[in-house]
Design a protein that fits this description.
The structure holds 2 protein chains of 2 kinds. By secondary structure, chain A is of the alpha+beta class. Chain A has 18 helices and 8 strands. Chain A has one domain: Cytochrome-c3 Hydrogenase, chain B (Orthogonal Bundle), CATH 1.10.645. In chain A, the strands form 3 sheets. Chain A has a 3-stranded antiparallel β-sheet. A 3-stranded antiparallel β-sheet of chain A has the order 6-7-8. Chain A has a two-stranded antiparallel sheet with strand order 4-5. In chain A, helix 5 runs antiparallel to helix 6 and helix 7 packs antiparallel against helix 12. The two termini of chain B are about 50 Å apart. Chain B contains 13 helices and 23 strands. Classes of the chains: A alpha+beta, B alpha+beta.
Chain lengths: ~425, ~525
């Protein structure tokens, strides 16, 4: 009987597609209205402001205004020794500080010409803490975005997993979030004795949490309606706007610095770079989900092959000597003093060094004038380019679409605004 | 035999040498070290100093010369034509490290408590040229840690690296051989002869030249870490010599004065007395304008001063005198000489200042005023002397005075019906004055002094003026306005430029470029 046939649309929520298909006459006549969203808006994370021009619920134009978290990173860096800059890099992408630590250290090491002298164990440790950070970065992005779409359970599951990982990073670095664990020439301390068994256990539990989230979200009608086909970025746009990381890859741009310009020991690991096909919010979600699994693969391989040895370069001009030497010999005392007060002497020159950060290509352009402090220390934050594309993809969507779209761009104020 | 040399060709004025594979032309007769410095090749040294003789005792500047089997001290050896020098061969690098290793063998682990840390040559050379961990862990030789050498100096014999720079400063600069070496080998130490003290008037130069923290100044010791200090180039106000100095200050307090090299004036040195002149900057200052002994506002004080001086000017202008102190800057003097001739319409201008003191033929002048020459140039031929002032006060020709800066003659001031003074310090002159205006001191202003040679030398402000005190030229301008003139100057440089135009003998003087004080931390360890 026709009486029991399903309604014309199977959608429980009216999504973009439905609204677009409405006949022109069914729309209420409306006037355009300016609307201010953020910075004090939960979905804007307190760090960005969008000035919208809306017609009813529909966005006509959008002006994304950044800079609310500007901390003069580049200017501060000019007055700090090369080592003192690490705490500042922690605060760039504050959900994956280790990746920023590593990216900065690699740039300075290249300029010093010691990038091929970093102990192998230190390079493996950098990969391990970096990939843990990548997972925490994606967990934060997915958890928070799910919560903003009302999936609060997923938020709790993923935050719990993030906390397990951060506890491990706290164990090696002493700080839960602002690790400052990497040093020029290696890392500050070796992994704790039972770090690897603990990490394996955490990864097992994380897999469960991620799988739970996957089950709760991927097939979820509400979630899919908010994500599918929203905020589409083409591959051409991704190249044109300089989009990298999960955002660029979701648009089909298979660019991953770890694969295309391998650094540290990434060329020794077997991992895949997931790529999307449509470039919509759902693709960005799916790419991140898969990247976490690939990071876990890298982690397991790195733990299996972790070599023994020192974790810091043996060069008194770069690395602080051991404390026992500092307190008992004048040579190390002087080296400690000079490194602390004057800083590492980096030969004059300039370099651009880039790594795969949580959100894409994280670049450091540094210029040295031969003193212990940078003459210039510029960051190429991946989010900066990624956030810029919002101006292009938001017009035409509904106000409610800003929340998942902005969430999946994953603009991190600390990194974008510096 | 002497006649034979006349047949030989004259030695060339310049010679061609090869340093590290690069050919350079340098003047004949310079040392290898000098030649290296001229062409920008770095060679480390401890005992050599540009202002002293070269005994080649530290062996840190050894270089290799082709044809010589042993490394040669570059500070001592003169260049010769076609000499091939190597400053970075493996042998030289190794020898350099070995010398540093010897020097550090018995050096105490004192950096955290050492005054020299941060500007220490040993730290710098070790880090630049060695930077290897210690290879021995034997116990170090102990020597005396605190030897009271003299009025200003404390010696730590353990830190001494026996470079003998301080001995040469005493012998060659102060010409008073106070310091000697005693004992031999690793027991060698720096000391004075029994019963002797290091008490020559240039003793603090030994602290400057000491490459390590062995000699420390009692005055500066433990008061401030060197890297926290901000350095401002200036000129010593102690006497007419005008030694070039650096003011080292932090948190608006001067911690020490050190000489700044100027071959035409003070070479690398200054006297101990000059170094202590900074104490007056922070002692017993006049910090607020006073009218009849009570602090008041600038506006009220300037108004009262203008009323007093203006009424004398209008009624009995011939009784009004202006006293310029040779302690003040050219800018203050010029602004007040303009005020006296145009604003106050008097030509009774007198030169006064501190009295004569001891002198020597090294640096110290008997004239204890830094700017007597400048005052005379700006005051012109009609400038009266201190004796003239005394006479005019005694005979009652002058009954009203405007006194600019500290002067020695104050005994007759108290009886004057009209006395307006600008002074930086509390004292009898301020007590006697009807109106006293606080004057900023030399370390607090931009300006210039003209020294006994007639050199116009720049002062740069290292501190904010104490309390409400203001630079003299600014007070002259404000007083002029209170007397009805228009504003003339916005900054000291304008006064200076006008002075250079109007005062013939100042015409070649240069204000120089602005120099921002630099924190010694950022001076990249000058060592």
């Amino acid at each position: 009987m026709d009486d029991h046939s399903p309604p014309p649309s199977r959608h429980l929520v009216m999504g973009f597609g439905d609204a677009a298909n409405l006949p022109e006459a069914d729309e209420l006549p409306t006037e355009s209205m300016p609307l201010n969203m953020g910075p004090s808006h939960p979905a804007m994370h307190g760090t960005v402001r969008m000035v919208l021009e809306v017609e009813g619920e529909k966005i006509r134009t959008v002006d994304v205004q950044i800079g609310y978290l500007h901390r003069c990173f580049e200017k501060e860096a000019e007055n700090a020794t090369w080592t003192q800059i690490f705490p500042y890099t922690d605060r760039l992408n504050y959900v994956s500080p280790m990746l920023c630590n590593v990216g900065y250290a690699l740039a300075v090491e290249k300029l010093l010409g010691i990038d091929n002298k970093i102990p192998e164990r230190a390079q493996f440790i950098r990969v391990i803490v970096g990939e843990i950070s990548r997972i925490t970065d994606h967990l934060t992005c997915l958890g928070a975005s799910a919560m903003e779409l009302a999936a609060f359970t997923v938020f709790f599951y993923l935050m719990k997993a993030r906390e397990w990982l951060w506890e491990l990073l706290e164990e090696v670095s002493g700080a839960r979030l602002t690790h400052s664990y990497v040093r020029i020439g290696g890392v500050v301390a070796d992994l704790t004795d039972d770090f690897c068994p603990k990490l394996r256990d955490v990864l097992r539990r994380c897999r469960g949490a991620i799988s739970d989230a996957d089950k709760l979200l991927t097939g979820n009608r509400i979630f899919r309606d908010r994500m599918d086909g929203i905020g589409i970025i083409t591959r051409e746009d991704a190249i044109g706007w300089g989009l990298t990381g999960p955002v660029g890859r979701s648009a089909g741009l298979a660019y991953d610095v770890r694969k295309d310009h391998p650094y540290l020991v990434y060329d020794r690991f077997d991992f895949d770079v997931p790529v999307g096909s449509k470039g919509d919010n759902f693709d960005r979600y799916a790419v991140r989900l898969e990247e976490m699994r690939q990071s876990m693969r890298i982690l397991e391989q790195a733990m299996d092959r972790l070599p023994a040895g020192p974790v810091l370069i043996d060069d008194a001009r770069v690395a602080l000597p051991p404390k026992r030497e500092v307190y008992n010999t004048i040579e190390s005392m002087i080296a400690h003093f000079k490194l602390t007060m004057d800083g590492i002497v980096v030969p004059p020159g300039e370099i651009y060094s880039f790594t795969e950060g949580g959100n894409g290509e994280l670049g450091f352009y540094i210029v040295s004038d031969g003193t212990g402090r940078p003459c210039k220390c510029r960051v190429r934050p991946p989010c900066f380019a990624n956030t810029a594309v919002l101006n292009k993809i938001l017009p035409g969507l509904f106000i409610a679409d800003i929340v998942p779209t902005f969430g999946m761009i994953n603009m991190i104020g600390g990194e974008c605004d510096r | 035999m002497a006649g034979d040399t006349q047949g030989l060709p004259a030695p060339p004025a310049r010679v061609k040498i090869v340093i590290d594979g690069q050919t350079h032309e340098v003047p004949a007769g310079v040392t290898i070290l000098d030649a290296c410095q001229r062409v920008g090749v770095k060679v480390p040294f401890f005992c050599w100093h540009p202002g002293l003789s070269a005994p080649a005792v530290c062996r840190q500047c050894l270089v290799e010369i082709k044809g010589f089997s042993k490394p040669i001290p570059s500070c001592y050896t003169l260049v010769a034509d076609k000499m091939e020098i190597s400053t970075n061969s493996p042998k030289v690098v190794d020898v350099r490290r070995q010398m540093l290793e010897f020097t550090l063998l018995n050096h105490p682990i004192d950096c955290p408590i050492c005054d020299k840390a941060g500007e220490c040559m040993l730290q710098k050379h070790y880090f630049d040229w060695d930077a290897r961990l210690a290879r021995n862990d034997g116990s170090k030789l102990r020597k005396a840690k605190v030897v009271d050498l003299g009025r200003h100096i404390v010696l730590d014999q353990e830190r001494c690296i026996l470079c003998s720079r301080c001995i040469r400063v005493c012998n060659e600069v102060a010409r008073q051989p106070d310091l000697v070496m005693a004992f031999r080998g690793d027991r060698q130490l720096l000391t004075t002869a029994p019963g002797q003290r290091l008490d020559n008037p240039y003793s603090l130069n030994t602290v400057d030249v000491c490459p390590v923290g062995a000699l420390t100044a009692k005055d500066f010791r433990f008061s401030m870490r060197a890297w926290e200090l901000w350095a401002t180039p200036s000129v010593c106000p102690g006497c007419a010599t005008g030694c070039n100095i650096e003011i080292h200050a932090a948190h608006n307090v001067i911690r020490r004065l050190v000489p700044r090299p100027n071959p035409a004036v003070n070479k690398y040195w200054m006297c101990d007395e000059g170094r202590m002149t900074y104490k007056r900057v922070h002692h017993n200052r006049l910090v607020a304008p006073m009218v009849v002994g009570a602090p008041t506002s600038w506006d009220a004080a300037l108004g009262e001063a203008a009323r007093l001086l203006g009424s004398v000017r209008d009624k009995t202008p011939s009784t009004l005198g202006v006293v310029l102190s040779a302690q003040t800057t050219n800018e203050t003097l010029f602004a007040f000489s303009r005020l006296s001739s145009e604003g106050l319409r008097t030509d009774r201008v007198y030169l006064a200042g501190e009295g004569e003191g001891s002198a020597d033929d090294i640096l110290v002048s008997a004239d204890k005023n830094p700017n007597t020459t400048g005052t005379k140039l700006i005051g012109g031929p009609t400038l009266g002397t201190a004796a003239d002032l005394k006479q005019d006060l005694e005979t009652g020709v002058v009954t009203a005075l405007l006194v600019v800066g500290a002067v020695g003659v104050v005994d007759r001031f108290a009886s004057l019906p009209t006395l307006v003074v600008l002074d930086s310090h509390q004292g009898p002159m301020v007590s006697a004055a009807r109106v006293a205006l606080p004057l900023a001191m030399w370390a607090e202003v931009d300006g210039s002094f003209t020294n006994r040679q007639g050199k116009v030398q720049r002062l740069r402000a290292a501190l904010a003026p104490a309390g409400q005190s203001r630079p003299g030229w600014e007070i002259a301008d404000q007083l002029g306005r209170a007397l009805g003139a228009t504003r003339r100057y916005a900054n000291a440089k304008q006064v200076f430029s006008e002075a250079c135009e109007k005062v013939t003998l100042m015409s070649g003087a240069d204000w120089g470029n602005p120099e921002i004080p630099v924190q010694l931390r950022f001076a990249n360890s000058r060592g």
